[in-house]
Give the backbone structure.
Amino acid sequence: MSSEPEEEPVSVLQRFEKRLEGLVEGAFAKVFKGVVHPVEILNAMQREAEAHKAILAGGRTLVPNRYVIDLSPYDHSRLAPYAAALAQELAQSQAEFIGEQAWTVYGDVIVEIERGDGLDTGMFRVTAEVYTGGEVAPVQQPAYDAAPAYSPYDQQQGGYPPHGGHNGRNVGLVSGDGRTYPLQMGSTVIGRGDQANLRLPDVGISRRHARLDYDGSQVVLTDLGSTNGTMVNGQRVSAVALNPGDMIQLGTTTLTFRVDG
């Protein structure tokens, strides 16, 4: 028997730190010396998601998808050149964390970085909200009136508001190797880029390949102008309402649309 210890799985936080190292050639290390560190922010965002869980019909767990980060004036000024890049990395890592917990969000994970007057250097505040694409539903804390400093995704307006009951059905996609991807209400972008909610490591898939819109009664698949196109049951489609058992092909990946319940 080998006495070598098993390798620990790489955590969301470790992946986040690795990506930060690659951003702007190490500028983050200099920027955050002695001030708030992005890993602390991500930790706080994870705690907020955990603290504000809500159980939906069908037993799914809903957590906030919009996170407003208030930084002290000093930290905010130091961070300003990197705020957009940092917001995108935080959003991606939070989406990964939520996915690993098998929780549900409405639409995309959004992170906005704001200046928090009155906060001491090194201090920050995280406000978590459920954002449905049209209205902000605050979770315990009030929403901020400030205009968003940065929103990493452009399809927010495509999200559906909560739909009553969604007929008690669980809908999702199943890959050829048996992986299941549950679909939440609203819009889900499939692709291999950072802005995709459902990321697939397939070089034949575009960064933003297709979108699934679920309104509680039906799921509509829309091709987003992908390079190689989207096929359903062997036919190339631009937009189509899916039926249970439909086979979706993107690149070399095949996903089966499934409805349970």
User: Anything to note?
Assistant: The longest helix spans residues 83-100.
